[in-house]
């Protein structure tokens, strides 16, 4: 077993032989190109002057007053394109360009990774195909149009639940068909090695900035909270703090109508070890090992697997993972909007919703950082039409 491909017992490369060529090529390029001073300088310049980094660590005064604790928001929603996704998409697209690839492909759920990939492709002069489930296209029409406006070809997937899992499967198949000329930009810390580590490394800028900003404030974080679907925004902020034993890390999954119902995407809450999309991880599956259908108001969190590093961190109990329901999420979105004038993405609102459970249980005043992974502009139709108890996805 190649230990560097694993986090404990999770990870690996469970792919057809035809894909191994591309994974080997990618790993070699990542190690030889992405670590060079020239690549890092070019990426840093783009992140600063194109994306707008560093994103602020904002003291949410009114939320803090409401909950009785010091609440800080890591404002990934202020990045160009409106989410953390651009950090990774831009870095991978730049690597693709350095490798001589002419075309990138991507999968997307909420559409933010698709928009980020299409944006990076436009900036760097690359062709771009984005695979998106038909259901997700319907509930994220604005993002689908943004991708097209940026020059990307949006491929609608009509299989299965027509959401993120099916889009990912279709993107992998398309990659296999054009493997020598195409670069697959995976949007989360999932998939076969080296993707989970590469995506984590590209997103770790969130955690590095957060540590530096906390130092500037002269404080330390008692808790860091982030939403988890595949888990790139969460691992991006958690990775910097894994060795800080006095900082509790909390990942929030999509509870849908409740993790005790069939209608959720709470993989680490209810999943079992399995194989999905080229990796061994925790998977929502039935008694026969078939991947279960998932449901969430969030197009970005309705995934039946999770990144293998999250599965490992759950296994060793370094990170605690909980599920938040659609209704709790919507209430948190509305509260944050009214108190802070910040409209968070539905995904990020799952993390914000956990404040309602955590804060009343704390005996002394704590400092809590919530990663606001994206902005909620894309979700207005969903929130306007929200009905408690409705099955989404």
TrEMBL record:
Pfam families: PALP. The modification N6-(pyridoxal phosphate)lysine is found at residue 85. Its cofactor is pyridoxal 5'-phosphate. It is an enzyme of class 4 (lyase). Residues 52-374 form the Tryptophan synthase beta chain-like PALP domain. GO terms for molecular function: tryptophan synthase activity. Pathway: Amino-acid biosynthesis; L-tryptophan biosynthesis; L-tryptophan from chorismate: step 5/5. Its EC number is 4.2.1.20. Belongs to the TrpB family. Tetramer of two alpha and two beta chains. This is Tryptophan synthase beta chain. It comes from Campylobacter californiensis.
């Amino acid at each position: 077993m190649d230990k560097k491909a694993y986090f404990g017992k999770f990870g690996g490369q469970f792919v057809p032989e035809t894909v191994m060529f591309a994974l080997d090529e990618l790993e070699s390029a990542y190690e030889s190109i992405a670590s060079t001073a020239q690549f890092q300088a070019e990426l840093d310049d783009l992140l600063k002057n194109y994306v707008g980094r560093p994103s602020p660590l904002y003291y949410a005064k009114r939320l803090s007053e409401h909950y009785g604790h010091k609440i800080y928001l890591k404002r990934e929603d202020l990045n160009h394109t409106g989410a953390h996704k651009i950090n990774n998409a831009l870095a991978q697209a730049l690597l693709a360009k350095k490798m001589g690839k002419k075309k990138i492909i991507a999968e997307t759920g909420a559409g933010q990774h698709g928009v980020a990939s299409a944006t990076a492709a436009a900036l760097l002069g690359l062709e771009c195909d984005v695979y998106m489930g038909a259901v997700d296209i319907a509930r994220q029409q604005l993002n689908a149009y943004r991708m097209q406006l940026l020059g990307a070809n949006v491929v609608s997937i009509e299989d299965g639940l027509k959401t993120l899992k099916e889009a990912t499967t279709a993107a992998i198949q398309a990659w296999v068909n054009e493997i020598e000329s195409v670069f697959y930009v995976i949007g989360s810390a999932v998939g076969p090695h080296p993707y989970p580590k590469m995506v984590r490394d590209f997103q770790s800028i969130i955690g590095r900035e957060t540590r530096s900003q906390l130092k500037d404030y002269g404080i330390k974080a008692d808790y860091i909270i982030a939403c988890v679907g595949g888990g790139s925004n969460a691992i991006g902020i958690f990775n910097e703090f894994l060795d800080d034993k006095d900082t509790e890390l909390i990942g929030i999954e999509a509870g849908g109508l409740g993790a005790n119902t069939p209608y959720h995407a709470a993989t680490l809450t209810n999943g079992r070890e399995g194989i999905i999309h080229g990796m061994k991880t925790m998977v929502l599956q039935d008694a026969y090992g078939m991947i279960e259908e998932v449901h969430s108001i969030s197009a970005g969190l309705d995934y039946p697997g999770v990144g293998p590093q999250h599965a490992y961190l759950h296994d060793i109990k370094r990170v605690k993972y909980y599920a938040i329901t659609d209704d709790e999420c919507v209430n948190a979105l509305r509260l944050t909007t009214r108190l802070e004038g910040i409209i968070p993405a539905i995904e990020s609102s799952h993390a914000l919703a956990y404040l309602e459970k955590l804060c009343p249980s704390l005996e002394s005043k704590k400092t809590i950082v919530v990663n606001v992974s994206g902005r909620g502009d894309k979700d207005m139709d969903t929130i306007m039409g929200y009905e408690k108890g409705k099955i989404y996805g």
